[in-house]
Amino acid sequence: MSGPAHRLAEIRERVQRAADSVGRDPATITLIAVSKTHSAEQIREFYDLGVRDFGENKLQEAEPKISALPTDICWHYIGHLQSNKVRRVLSVFQVVHVFENLRQRDAISSDFSPVRDVFIEVNVGKEAQKGGIAPENLASFHESLIECKRISFRGLMTIGPVQCDPEGMRPYYRELAQRNAELRGDWLSMGMSSDFDVAIQEGSTHIRVGTALFGARG
Ligand SMILES: *Cc1c(COP(=O)(O)O)cnc(C)c1O
To answer: Which CATH superfamily is domain 4-214 in?
Structure first.
């Protein structure tokens, strides 16, 4: 088996094992291949292996790749989102994971179409340098966000504090899942290369995997 096929098979096996361990159906978990810094050709390899969800974190870097690749890809925006880029991001990405302030909502005009799926990013670790809304402000922000009819709230997303041990993420992921249930989110975006197994056990529906699929970023 070649490199990408082998790595993808390994990831799918990890997803299956994590899902089995808590009695979940792996079909309810979307693997987002985080392709930031990697070329359209590298993305194409995973596309040819059946991957249809890709994640990017920079608009300028993503746009040429998006136009070079097949239109049945679902593109996920996972980077920092400046309010002056919101309209452009929503026009080229199908799913946006990083809503966290009202300037972003206000940048969406009432005639924008089509309606996009969005996650609210939560700073569960309350880290000063990280993006995401503080947990204590989540309820009121959620209420304001869902007033915007051009976006559809689907659930919460977090990156979380970097841990040496994936088990260290469990309390953060558990807290996010609980808050997601309170807001009736049907999707939940959490888990990266090193810890998506734990995230799946805690209820993640969207894992964002870069390094474990593409190798280290240059
Ligand atoms: C880069 C990135 C990932 C992927 O991280 P890996 O550790 O390479 O799997 C996931 N989520 C976000 C928000 C990222 O920026």
So the answer is: Alanine racemase (3.20.20.10)
